[in-house]
Amino acid sequence: MKFLVACAAAALVVFAPAFSPQQKSENKCDFGLSGTHVQPNITGPTEILPIIHVVDQPDSPVEIVSADFKGSFVSVSNEQFTEELNCSIKLRNRSDRVVRSFDTITGVVSGEIGIPTMSGFGAVSGLPNGRSLTPGAELEIKGCGGGGNGSAPGNRVRLIVGIEAVSFDGCIYIPSRRFAL
Prior knowledge:
181 residues, mainly beta, 1 helix, 44% strand
């Protein structure tokens, strides 16, 4: 009898892992958000402040805290626009993970019907090589630079600012983007 119990115990030790449920693999893109979403502080010339719009991205691990468009202009006339964008953007990591890199988007969006076109599109790397943005940390970057021109149907344009993508170890996360034209 002792022999049967010993054999059953040995079999249980040997074969138990084969019958146990598989462990779930860790999703490298999982993260939690801390704190409440802040309303960004936007500054710049009074002529362009009414057209600046920070993209609504409640799921973004990196949020825009403030943006300064000093020295920028957007001119719209005869359904055409000309822009010169110079800005600095202050960002905060509101996730519980270390951010390895991120890209921002800034540019003039025009169009009334269908998918709008974006001119002056700029994606700028947010972190110097070898740096990371720890949870809760803030960083100020040069968020745009340069000029351009394009069509502006109905003489309507918006200057949008947002987060393009965020990189964690083993994951690139692309936040949602919602904005009214």
